[in-house]
């Protein structure tokens, strides 16, 4: 695990979700897209364009743009395999970013289409 980013962001988000739950708008969402080569490829391209600068090319939380952030970016490679990483939780995280938590992650709900968020989520499970 790189630099504790997963632990720091995981702890912050876990505490927030334990106290407040995932926003009901997102909590029960399920990814409607299938894990296909095309969706994985699209998700990879979207991840590289929107996420890798901070989270790193393989999701370790070690991207160049994230090095000065406090808390550091999450280690998505480790986090995407936890029980907490439900579809609703991941969608909420990408859509709302760090706004609910006061962290630097930008919200993507107005810059990415719904299917683009789902494709990024499919790709996260490839780490």
Automatic annotation (TrEMBL):
<dbReference type="InterPro" id="IPR051459">
    <property type="entry name" value="Cytochrome_c-type_DH"/>
</dbReference>
<keyword id="KW-0408">Iron</keyword>
<protein>
    <recommendedName>
        <fullName>Cytochrome c domain-containing protein</fullName>
    </recommendedName>
</protein>
<dbReference type="InterPro" id="IPR009056">
    <property type="entry name" value="Cyt_c-like_dom"/>
</dbReference>
<feature type="domain" description="Cytochrome c">
    <location>
        <begin position="38"/>
        <end position="127"/>
    </location>
</feature>
<keyword id="KW-0479">Metal-binding</keyword>
<dbReference type="GO" id="GO:0020037">
    <property type="term" value="F:heme binding"/>
</dbReference>
<dbReference type="InterPro" id="IPR036909">
    <property type="entry name" value="Cyt_c-like_dom_sf"/>
</dbReference>
<dbReference type="Pfam" id="PF13442">
    <property type="entry name" value="Cytochrome_CBB3"/>
</dbReference>
<dbReference type="GO" id="GO:0046872">
    <property type="term" value="F:metal ion binding"/>
</dbReference>
<dbReference type="GO" id="GO:0009055">
    <property type="term" value="F:electron transfer activity"/>
</dbReference>
<keyword id="KW-0349">Heme</keyword>
